[in-house]
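Reviewer 2 asked us to include a model.

Predict the structure of this chain.
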Amino acid sequence: MAPFSLRSHLRAAALRRKRFKSTEKHGRRGTKDMEGSFKRLKSEMEGTSEVQKDIREGQRQVKEKFEAIETGCEELKRETQLIIQQSAITQIKLALMFRILKAREAGDFNTAANLTEMLR
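Predicted model (structure tokens):
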């Protein structure tokens, strides 16, 4: 069992030396390639940063529009509630007027007077 582990150990050491020599051999060219990669990555990151800024600006605009719509919706709800209240008041007044007319037709002027007072 020992020879196999020794063989694998020696093989791994040989590979490490070979990799080290290849980087020494191509040292300057590897650095230039790396610098080019860094420049490319930097420009890509700047482009990504611009896109992110545009996205944030778009999100801000959408939020403003949403808030404006929400405000308009609340205003419409208030106006609708006011119209409902006014409609209910109008229905009550019409019912009182109708009862006043019926009381006058029946000759019940006391009830008509009381209902007229309520209407005011």
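Residues 27-106 form the longest helix (80 residues). Helices lie at 2-25, 27-106, 109-119. We have added this to the supplementary material.
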